Amino acid sequence: MEFLNSILIKPFADMVAAPDFLLQVLWEGLVAGVLYALIALGFVLIYKSSRIFNFAQGIMVVFAALTLVGLHERGVPALLAVPLTLLVMFLLALAIERVVLRPLVNQPDIILFMATIGITLFLVGLGEFIFGGENKVMITEQLGIPTGSFTFEPFGGFVSIEQKDLTAVIGSGLLVAALLVFLNKSKMGRAIRALGDDHQAALSVGISLSTIWVLVWFIAGVIALATGIVWGARAGVSFALEVIAYKALPVLMLGGLESVLGAIIGGLAIGILEKLFEIYWGQPLLGGNTETWFAFVFALIVLLFRPQGLFGEKIIERV
Amino acid sequence: MNAHSGVEIIAAPDDGIAPGDKLMEVKNVSLRFGGVKAITDISFDVRKGEIRAIIGPNGAGKTSMLNVINGFYTPQEGTIVFRGVERRAMKPHHAVRQGIARTFQNVALFKGMSTLDNIMAGRSVHMNKNLFWQMLWHGPALREEIEHREKVEEIIDFLEIQHIRRTPVGRLPYGLQKRVELGRALAMEPSLLLLDEPMAGMNLEEKEDMSRFIVEVNQQRGTTIALIEHDMGVVMDLSDRVVVLDYGKKIADGVPDEVKSNQQVIDAYLGVAH
Amino acid sequence: MLYRTAGQFKTSYAADHALFPVRQDAWLLGFILLVAYVLFPLTASEFTLNALLVPVLIYALAALGLNILTGYAGQLSLGTGAFMGVGAYACFKLMTIFPGMNIAVAIALSGFFSAAVGVAFGLPSLRIKGFYLAIATLAAQFFLVWLFEKWAWLYNYNSSGAIQVPNVSMFGLTVAGPGAAPVVKYYFVLLTVTLVTWFAINITRGRIGRTWKAVRDMDIAAELVGINPMKAKLSAFAVSSYIVGISGALFVFLWRGAAEPNLFDIPLSFRVLFIAIIGGLGSILGNYLGAILIVALPVIIGSLPAALGLPLQSATIEHLNVMIVGATIILFLIVEPHGLARFWAIIREKLIMWPFPH
Known about the structure:
The complex is a heterotrimer. Chain B is 36% helix and 23% strand. By secondary structure, chain B is of the alpha/beta class. Chain B has 2 domains: 1-99 and 190-274, Rossmann fold, CATH 3.40.50.300; 111-188, no CATH class. The longest helix of chain B has 19 residues, at 140-158. Chain B starts with 21 loop residues before the first strand and ends with a helix. Chain C has a single domain, classed as ABC transporter involved in vitamin B12 uptake, BtuC, CATH 1.10.3470. Chain C has helices at residues 13-16, 23-43, 46-72, 80-97, 103-122, 130-150, 182-205, 207-217, 219-224, 229-256, 266-279, 285-308, 314-335, 340-353, and strands spanning 163-164, 168-170, 173-176, 258-259. In chain C, strand 2 and strand 3 (173-176) form a beta hairpin. The two termini of chain C are 13 Å apart. The chains are: A mainly alpha, B alpha/beta, C mainly alpha.
């Protein structure tokens, strides 16, 4: 009874007893969720256009953040460092398409997947080689991101919202909106979406596959930089950042590897749920740090009941 | 027939049904995918020892019918009676255990495995030595392996595919793949063999070979065969009775000559408006 | 004419089913075993044994386990490291609870624990396929490593949170722990690996191996020839995790000597996956070739600058090392996606033909 109470009743009683704290937790979860959604979107774009499950997305976040901070350390003004970093990410996309993807075209999925792990290792080594392995501080203020915080007092309590988090949410929201417009309105965007449905048909429209690949990897690079700035501002710039990209994986399980909408909703859901679970169940009952696995186990359980994911269509198998 | 009279092919298992009696009966089967009707209220039977053809234009529901018979799809209405046992839903591997084997319209071989391994995989249902013996290899597991290997070699001889025994099937030409697939189905020793377009995409010579194999399997082993085929010449020559489907409905059923002269069948095949 | 197969005729299916139908293969294996069992122990230095030979064997064993699941049964797993951890912790607990237990028995038993955990996390494979399953195995990876950290009972409430291997004797000889001679450890690992490899070869070429490959190549067709896909997949998870678990126990008891939870984290899983893929999926031999490459490469890179007289700092070498390993992986995937085992198969075919071109 005591046990049931502690897992079924007490957490909810705690939520009701301190609604201001609950709001704070939800906000923290939302911020994380926005970032997961953003990274998952990078995955989805690459998967849709090339059937590549890009494990390097995580290290691209680190690499982008390191480049930005590294350039600033070497005396480049912050606002110039951003476009320079974007240029680096573009060159990276170009190099990956040339050196890795083109020779591996038409290989089985698992080979391409392994190649992205190879890319991951290479970038880890390269990043450490150029910028050193020690932790760095994100140049938040230099980029003009406000660092103060707003406070509210709802329900007679206290909620604090960091301005940089708010900036992150708004910035990410704008980036996602821009991506959606690009995918739905531009010719290139439509080509990317068509590629997900039918390779041959998309190619017959007359857009070169290499161009699309470079473009989606560059978009993934832009997303990586945005994530790197935001998360770096919260947690510092180090290779530990790579871990947050892993969180995009259960988001993909939930939302489907090819669904843009699934990535967004799945990302927000996982960000919020894992925070709630950690605060109300994980810390009091399981010794905490459940955020490392909660999202995966949650997605796994959902998939057991809905193998096609939350947004996938039911698959009719044929022979 | 004489060409292979020296080769003893594995006999079909005794299923307790006398030749000429109903081996399988399809009763009022309907199958839908969402709102799309693939099969509507179809009934027919297959008698032991016969070659039964299922024909019809593209999209008539032929392959769906085979999928229902071997348990891959579960019909919303109706049942299948096989060897006197009635059922609606079952797993495909259970259907195999009951004695239904099949080949596929688009060859469904195990591409990374050799011809030998593909046909040996068809023997899986008849093998049972557990992991422990498999691990040691010698003793019971090896005896079992050799015993089944001998039966598989008989099939390989029968189908004249000795020379490709060790070749990964992914590298074989289409006609040979179809033959290996037939071999795999024969290795299951079925009482009912379902063939989904066994001659699709074959040249004349390959078709003749395949027809010969089908007739020999039927006559020498007494295996009952239900087949889908588009080549009308082949169908009318090979089969004892023909059932005709169109838009998921049965429009004719009988011996080849009856079916050939049926006006509805002629309309369906010539594409005359309904 | 080294590899002349002409004149070698099989007169029975039993002879055809021998491990090496071609005589030269048997000689080659005999030679390799001779080198492994006699030459290396007599000549190898302690450093070679500890830093090269023992880890090559253990990693090869882990990759063999993974290869059964991914290469033979077609189920991609990213959680190998955590399953190695299950084997290691199980062995540690068995040795603590039954102090008199023979370590060979403890290691053999510990595999059953990882097999059970493997089957539990393999259950989703019945409904989830491909990359979705791969992500699902990450659930095992992250959850288990968290558990190794939080469940203090596993490491006997040790304040450091790590497990430490004591001196363990077998028949009066110290085989594990700080006091064991490297050559003794080497023999222990070599014997285990030889035995498990032989078992694995037998399983993969028999009925169960065929059901795995059938499910890998086309799972729907496998079901339609009467193979129960559930049995095939779960048996692959069980056998694979058993071998991976044993390799984990060897990893800690016969090589590292101590382990913290994060040792079993995702980099270990990936290292084993690299070995299996670079070696060749669906091959037994490949695991050894892959392990030799992945273990030896860093050692060689690490010693090169000193040999060439380049004044590089050890951290720099470490970074270059990671880069080179990453680049090597990509290079190998481009040059031969089927792995080193395929290289050997091609060379062997050439040797059979040699000196005639056809």
